[in-house]
């Protein structure tokens, strides 16, 4: 661990989902309080590992995404807690900033409104922008010494309890591609709820770990073992991950998750049924091809179970959409 | 009774007999026998070679298309007669071989037909668009491979400039070549087609690209070989032999025009061909034409030869080569033109980089240069082709305008014109946002209350944080197991016994092929242009039915494999896990078929 590492934590704070989680008995759930204390312990551990480690915490609330804490000091709250002689000061600052930001956000909600889906994608993009900014600052200052290798190892950890939102497929895929470019690893910790297809793909494509928690009362054990080691030493300390990845994609027209789709050969956008004109790049497809493809569509009512997951294959022809 | 063109007493494999050339075949009969032991039609003769003139035995070797080694015949008549006979055979066979190598395509079919009179018409089954697959499956499957091989052998003797069309024989040949080059495909083909499950056409239906690639690779012709013509004598049992083929003779004449001149002047008036060659290879002329300057080994062999020594030329080791290179010097890069300008102030003349400091090496270097020039000329089309005169000014500028001097221009690219950006980025799925699965609904307000309550008093909670030992251990163990199993998989050696593994692979590839045929029958064709056979819907359904029948048996096959695994002390679960993907695919196809049929069953509307 000779390179300092940066960790951006994205916490899924959807009240309804946490209520489900707290109430559920099988699989055993976890109340939000316990979760938050374990999370704080983990964050303290990260900044204790190495002095130069940096941390940023983002919260995904219904309809908004907020930066709760950052070690470079962007998200400071107005109130400061009294100094406590029993606690290591950096820990105390971190914990109090995070918790007070969360409380502030919760209080700002108007109860009569409908709950919106959480801003997970917003958090993801903000985290990537933050990382990009800090990386470029560091490399600008350390140009003489470092040379080509980057001095900071960034990674993102997503703690999620909510299910997939198919409308977020496209933005999440775009974030994954930018993470690949920036060489950022995305880890995912699924505390509660069904498997999240898009986050699985995110972990797989960036080389991160996807862990589904079975014993929620030992959440801290999971986090310490799987998510504390920075990417550089993961070759030595193997972290557990889930190998089965569901590679299904969502169609662009209805945002439904599809197994077999039709791909435009110009812009590679995915459709669940053959369209005469591609909606993203406005390429026209010949009628004969459409008729032929319509005849070949899988029958609508066969149950589409994934079976053993396989990647969605895409075929490109010469300006003809073809069944994939 | 076919008429005999020439015949001679000749022995084959040390047995005496009679060698005959009829107007359709070449055959050899052992004395005393009635029917010929060796008999092959004209089309099979591929190569001809003979023993050195002056050698003890007068031999003739004929290489066949199918059999590279061919047959060796030794003429047993007394020497002079044998030589004459051999020459006659040779002349006839050379014309036949030449005809074999470069025939016009149209003339082939009647020739093939007549010479293949004994073989039952095999091109017939390979007609395109054959309706049912059954004509392809003769009742005796073992007879078919031998027939097919014979037809393809005949067609291999054709030149490579036969156009790739729908000609059945070219198809056969291409298929055979593709199968020979990929052994896995050959195995699959052997099992499925020879075993009678799938017809030949069906097998090749999705694989046309392989055939096209093979045809493209074949149509590339080889150019002239780059090596200098240098026949080396091989000493066999003390007797020094050079095998003279017509090709070699042609090459020698092209390389050394002196030899051609000598040949045309001396043969057949003063020397016979055989004598000419034997004397040539022992003469000084040949020694001068060798591609190596080490003459020590050949000293004792070289004899004076009155006729051939007349053609000896002086060694090419003057300052200027004997054949000056005819080259136009480009005025832009003519370095010699400016040397006059720099006489006083220029560099010293270079004395280090002079070719051929050793005079003895010069002839060889010049010979190599001439050979390379000749090669390039034949490949590029002669030195005079490039001298095309354009407008004076333009041409000069064009010579200066090198591409490397242009600036690096990045292309702007085509902007992706997206309409409806909002829909692309935003779009909620209809009804996909149902927030509640099974389970109790929680109102937002209560949930928010709970959440707010959790955030108060957090420091006390943090101080009291405890992880139960059992829970922690359980978590640790499960994670360790996860890592361990992955490590295990990486390290595990392949220890399934070979036979079982092969059975598994064949089962999988066969099932894959059936699946491919099934889906091909169901879905419309992928590409409208490339199709091997156009089948009517009825045929397609029939094919689909057949495939379904095969696919239903796959489960039993896998169970049989698992049972065998148990017998061989291999963990049966591994087999099951390995075969699971193919079983899933088979199940999917089966359910699709059932669904489709169940749909149609209750009355067609």
UniProtKB/TrEMBL annotation, chain A:
<keyword id="KW-0805">Transcription regulation</keyword>
<keyword id="KW-0227">DNA damage</keyword>
<feature type="region of interest" description="Disordered">
    <location>
        <begin position="296"/>
        <end position="324"/>
    </location>
</feature>
<protein>
    <recommendedName>
        <fullName>General transcription and DNA repair factor IIH subunit TFB4</fullName>
    </recommendedName>
</protein>
<comment type="function">
    <text>Component of the general transcription and DNA repair factor IIH (TFIIH) core complex, which is involved in general and transcription-coupled nucleotide excision repair (NER) of damaged DNA and, when complexed to TFIIK, in RNA transcription by RNA polymerase II. In NER, TFIIH acts by opening DNA around the lesion to allow the excision of the damaged oligonucleotide and its replacement by a new DNA fragment. In transcription, TFIIH has an essential role in transcription initiation.</text>
</comment>
<dbReference type="Pfam" id="PF03850">
    <property type="entry name" value="Tfb4"/>
</dbReference>
<dbReference type="GO" id="GO:0005675">
    <property type="term" value="C:transcription factor TFIIH holo complex"/>
</dbReference>
<dbReference type="GO" id="GO:0008270">
    <property type="term" value="F:zinc ion binding"/>
</dbReference>
<keyword id="KW-0804">Transcription</keyword>
<dbReference type="InterPro" id="IPR004600">
    <property type="entry name" value="TFIIH_Tfb4/GTF2H3"/>
</dbReference>
<keyword id="KW-0862">Zinc</keyword>
<dbReference type="GO" id="GO:0000439">
    <property type="term" value="C:transcription factor TFIIH core complex"/>
</dbReference>
<dbReference type="InterPro" id="IPR036465">
    <property type="entry name" value="vWFA_dom_sf"/>
</dbReference>
<keyword id="KW-0234">DNA repair</keyword>
<keyword id="KW-0863">Zinc-finger</keyword>
<keyword id="KW-0539">Nucleus</keyword>
<keyword id="KW-0479">Metal-binding</keyword>
<dbReference type="GO" id="GO:0006355">
    <property type="term" value="P:regulation of DNA-templated transcription"/>
</dbReference>
<feature type="compositionally biased region" description="Polar residues">
    <location>
        <begin position="296"/>
        <end position="316"/>
    </location>
</feature>
<comment type="subunit">
    <text>Component of the 7-subunit TFIIH core complex composed of XPB/SSL2, XPD/RAD3, SSL1, TFB1, TFB2, TFB4 and TFB5, which is active in NER. The core complex associates with the 3-subunit CTD-kinase module TFIIK composed of CCL1, KIN28 and TFB3 to form the 10-subunit holoenzyme (holo-TFIIH) active in transcription.</text>
</comment>
<comment type="similarity">
    <text>Belongs to the TFB4 family.</text>
</comment>
<dbReference type="GO" id="GO:0006289">
    <property type="term" value="P:nucleotide-excision repair"/>
</dbReference>
Automatic annotation (TrEMBL), chain B:
<dbReference type="Pfam" id="PF03909">
    <property type="entry name" value="BSD"/>
</dbReference>
<keyword id="KW-0539">Nucleus</keyword>
<dbReference type="Pfam" id="PF08567">
    <property type="entry name" value="PH_TFIIH"/>
</dbReference>
<dbReference type="InterPro" id="IPR005607">
    <property type="entry name" value="BSD_dom"/>
</dbReference>
<keyword id="KW-0677">Repeat</keyword>
<dbReference type="InterPro" id="IPR027079">
    <property type="entry name" value="Tfb1/GTF2H1"/>
</dbReference>
<dbReference type="InterPro" id="IPR013876">
    <property type="entry name" value="TFIIH_BTF_p62_N"/>
</dbReference>
<dbReference type="GO" id="GO:0006351">
    <property type="term" value="P:DNA-templated transcription"/>
</dbReference>
<keyword id="KW-0805">Transcription regulation</keyword>
<keyword id="KW-0804">Transcription</keyword>
<feature type="domain" description="BSD">
    <location>
        <begin position="247"/>
        <end position="288"/>
    </location>
</feature>
<comment type="similarity">
    <text>Belongs to the TFB1 family.</text>
</comment>
<feature type="region of interest" description="Disordered">
    <location>
        <begin position="115"/>
        <end position="169"/>
    </location>
</feature>
<dbReference type="InterPro" id="IPR011993">
    <property type="entry name" value="PH-like_dom_sf"/>
</dbReference>
<dbReference type="GO" id="GO:0000439">
    <property type="term" value="C:transcription factor TFIIH core complex"/>
</dbReference>
<dbReference type="InterPro" id="IPR035925">
    <property type="entry name" value="BSD_dom_sf"/>
</dbReference>
<protein>
    <recommendedName>
        <fullName>BSD domain-containing protein</fullName>
    </recommendedName>
</protein>
<feature type="compositionally biased region" description="Low complexity">
    <location>
        <begin position="146"/>
        <end position="157"/>
    </location>
</feature>
<dbReference type="GO" id="GO:0006289">
    <property type="term" value="P:nucleotide-excision repair"/>
</dbReference>
């Amino acid at each position: 661990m000779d390179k300092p590492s940066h960790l951006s934590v994205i916490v899924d704070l959807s009240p309804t989902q946490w209520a489900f989680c707290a109430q559920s008995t099988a699989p055993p759930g976890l109340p939000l309080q316990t979760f938050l204390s374990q999370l704080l312990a983990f964050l303290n551990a990260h900044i204790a590992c190495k002095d130069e480690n940096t941390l940023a915490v983002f919260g995904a609330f219904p309809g908004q995404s907020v930066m709760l804490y950052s070690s470079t000091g962007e998200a400071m709250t107005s109130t400061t807690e009294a100094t406590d002689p029993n606690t290591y000061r950096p820990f105390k600052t971190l914990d109090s900033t995070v918790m007070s930001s969360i409380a502030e956000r919760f209080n700002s909600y108007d109860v009569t409104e409908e709950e919106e889906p959480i801003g997970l994608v917003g958090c993801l993009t903000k985290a990537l922008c933050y990382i990009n900014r800090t990386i470029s600052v560091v490399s600008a200052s350390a140009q003489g010494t470092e040379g080509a290798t980057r001095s900071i190892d960034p990674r993102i950890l997503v703690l999620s309890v909510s299910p997939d939102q198919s409308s977020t497929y496209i933005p999440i895929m775009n974030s994954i591609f930018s993470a690949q470019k920036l060489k950022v690893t995305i880890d995912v910790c699924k505390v509660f709820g069904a498997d999240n297809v898009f986050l699985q793909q995110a972990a797989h494509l960036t080389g991160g770990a996807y862990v589904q928690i079975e014993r929620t009362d030992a959440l801290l054990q999971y986090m310490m073992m799987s998510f504390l080691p920075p990417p550089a030493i993961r070759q030595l300390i193997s972290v557990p991950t889930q190998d089965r990845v569901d590679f299904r994609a969502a169609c662009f027209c209805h945002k439904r998750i599809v197994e077999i789709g039709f791909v435009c050969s110009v812009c590679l956008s995915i459709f669940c049924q053959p369209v005469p004109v591609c909606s993203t790049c406005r390429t026209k497809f010949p009628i004969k091809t459409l008729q032929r493809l319509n005849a070949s569509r899988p029958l609508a009512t066969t149950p589409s179970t994934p079976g053993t997951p396989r990647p969605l294959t895409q075929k490109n022809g010469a300006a003809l959409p073809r069944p994939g | 009774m076919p008429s005999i063109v020439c015949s001679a007493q000749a022995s084959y494999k040390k047995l005496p007999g009679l060698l005959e050339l009829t107007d359709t075949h070449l055959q050899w009969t052992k004395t005393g026998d009635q029917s010929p032991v060796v008999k092959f039609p004209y089309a099979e003769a591929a190569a001809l070679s003979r023993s050195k003139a002056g050698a003890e035995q007068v031999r003739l070797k004929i290489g066949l298309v199918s059999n590279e080694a061919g047959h060796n015949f030794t003429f047993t008549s007394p020497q002079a007669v044998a030589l004459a006979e051999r020459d006659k055979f040779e002349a006839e066979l050379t014309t036949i071989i030449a005809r074999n190598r470069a025939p016009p395509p149209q003339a082939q079919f009647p020739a093939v037909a007549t010479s293949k009179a004994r073989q039952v018409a095999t091109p017939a089954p390979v007609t395109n668009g054959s309706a049912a697959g059954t004509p392809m499956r003769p009742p005796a499957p073992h007879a078919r491979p031998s027939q097919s091989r014979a037809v393809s052998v005949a067609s291999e003797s054709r030149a490579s400039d036969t156009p790739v069309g729908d000609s059945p024989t070219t198809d056969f040949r291409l298929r055979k070549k593709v199968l020979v080059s990929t052994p896995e495909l050959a195995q699959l083909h052997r099992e499925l087609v020879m075993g009678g499950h799938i017809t030949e056409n069906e097998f090749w239906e999705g694989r046309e690209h392989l055939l096209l690639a093979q045809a493209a690779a074949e149509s590339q012709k080889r150019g002239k070989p780059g090596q200098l013509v240098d026949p080396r004598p091989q000493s066999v049992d003390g007797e020094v032999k050079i095998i003279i083929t017509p090709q070699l003779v042609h090459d020698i004449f092209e390389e050394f025009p002196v030899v051609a001149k000598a040949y045309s002047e001396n043969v057949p008036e003063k020397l016979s061909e055989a004598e000419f060659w034997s004397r040539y290879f022992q003469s000084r002329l040949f020694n001068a034409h060798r591609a190596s300057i080490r003459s020590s080994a050949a000293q004792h062999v070289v004899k004076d030869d009155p006729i051939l020594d007349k053609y000896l030329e002086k060694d090419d080791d003057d300052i200027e080569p004997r054949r000056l290179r005819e080259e136009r010097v480009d005025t832009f890069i003519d370095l010699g033109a400016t040397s006059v300008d720099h006489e006083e102030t220029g560099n010293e003349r270079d004395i280090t980089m002079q070719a051929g400091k050793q005079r003895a090496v010069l002839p060889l270097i010049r010979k190599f240069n001439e050979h390379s020039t000749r090669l390039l000329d034949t490949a590029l089309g002669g030195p005079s082709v490039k001298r095309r005169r354009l407008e004076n000014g333009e041409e000069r500028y064009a010579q200066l305008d090198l591409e490397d001097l242009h600036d690096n221009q990045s292309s702007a690219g085509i902007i992706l014109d997206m309409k409806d950006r909002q829909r692309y980025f935003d779009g909620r799925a209809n009804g996909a946002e149902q927030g509640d699965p099974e389970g109790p609904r929680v109102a937002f307000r209560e949930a928010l209350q709970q959440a707010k309550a959790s955030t108060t008093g957090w420091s006390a909670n943090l101080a009291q944080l405890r992880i139960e030992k059992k829970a922690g251990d359980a978590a640790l163990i499960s994670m360790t197991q996860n890592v361990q199993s992955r490590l295990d998989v990486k390290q595990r050696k392949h220890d399934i016994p070979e036979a079982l593994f092969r059975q598994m692979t064949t089962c999988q590839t066969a099932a894959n092929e059936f699946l491919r045929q099934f889906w091909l029958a169901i879905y419309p064709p992928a590409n409208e242009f490339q199709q091997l056979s156009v089948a009517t819907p009825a045929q397609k359904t029939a094919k689909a039915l057949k495939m379904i029948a095969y696919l239903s048996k796959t489960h039993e096959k896998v169970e049989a494999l698992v049972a065998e695994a148990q017998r061989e002390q291999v963990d049966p679960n591994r087999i099951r896990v390995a075969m699971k993907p193919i079983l899933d695919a088979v199940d999917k196809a089966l359910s699709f078929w059932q669904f489709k049929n169940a749909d149609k069953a209750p009355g067609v509307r």
